[in-house]
Design goal:
The protein is globular and about 60 Å long. It has two domains: 177 residues, NADH Oxidase (3-Layer(aba) Sandwich); 51 residues, no CATH class. 26% of the residues are buried. Strands 1-2-4-3 form a four-stranded antiparallel beta sheet, with helices on both faces. Helices cover 41% and strands 11% of the residues. It is built from ten helices and four strands; from the N terminus they run H-H-E-H-H-E-H-H-E-H-E-H-H-H. Helix 2 crosses helix 6. It is of the alpha+beta class. This is Nitroreductase family protein.
Length: 258
């Protein structure tokens, strides 16, 4: 509980290498994460080449990516299962082959996120610091090329790990009443309780100072939502464009699983 309730993103690491036994332990923890239908539909690429790290830092526009002693890119992976299915006599080019469907794409993506989170929590429980890297998706096309990602694979997130060289304060979280509901989703948020909770949360967030910009407070939560909601969804467009190139038919609606 202490590890989970004190989770923070660490963006500055000491240069101390992570011992192989520790990285092995973290990888084992990731493998113990829940996996839908026991398909184990994810893989992770450990990045050790300094030149490749630098290229990933350029994609993410975050220098600390290249400085992380331990760096992983988690990938949704139906290619391995497709190979196994083929070895078992399944025609992977037939219409009935569903590992390339949108459902299996999302299923594998969930598997990868769960595994990454397990690794992150394990690392933090050992006194290490981590930051999850959505920024590596800034250029999915280039990332696919750099990592030689084959058909039926797709990048999900990165994870940088190392001994913390900073101690950021805990970033605020919204009141539970804004995020946890009883039995059903609320009909709307147009009520006094929600409005007052949002005002309070906006004020709390605005008082928080992120170490990336230590000279100024973070924008209020409402202001952040306003900015994101009107921004061009480039990553979403890239997924829609590149997933089919990686062999996934993300429009497919397979029969409901039982």
């Amino acid at each position: 509980m202490d590890t989970l309730l004190n989770r923070r993103s660490i963006r500055r690491f000491e240069s101390t290498p992570i011992p192989p036994k520790t990285s092995e332990l973290l990888e084992l923890a990731a493998q113990r994460a829940a996996t839908s239908q026991f398909l184990n539909a994810w893989s992770a690429i450990r990045i050790t080449d300094p030149a490749l790290k630098q290229q990933l830092a350029e994609i993410g526009e975050q220098p600390y990516i290249a400085e992380a002693p331990l760096l992983y890119i988690f990938v949704l992976d139906q290619r391995r299962n497709a190979h196994i299915a083929k070895e078992q006599g399944i025609d992977v080019s037939a219409d009935g082959f569903n590992l390339a469907s949108s459902y299996r794409f999302l299923q594998a993506q969930n598997d990868a996120v769960l595994a990454l989170h397990a690794m992150e929590t394990a690392a933090e429980s050992l006194g290490l610091g981590c930051v999850i890297l959505g920024s590596v998706l800034n250029d999915i096309d280039r990332l696919i090329t750099l990592l030689h990602l084959r058909q039926l694979t797709f990048p999900v997130l990165g994870l940088a790990i190392g001994k913390p060289a900073q101690q950021p304060t805990l970033k605020p979280r919204m009141p539970r009443s804004m995020q946890f509901f009883e039995n059903a989703y609320p009909a709307d948020f147009d009520n006094e309780e929600f409005s007052q909770s949002l005002i309070s949360f906006d004020a709390t967030v605005h008082q928080y100072y992120d170490l990336r910009h230590a000279d100024r407070p973070v924008a209020a939560f409402s202001a952040q939502i306003k900015k994101v909601s009107s921004a061009k969804p480039s990553r979403l467009n890239d997924i829609g464009r590149l997933a089919p190139k990686q062999g996934f038919d993300i429009r497919t609606q397979p029969e409901q699983e039982h």
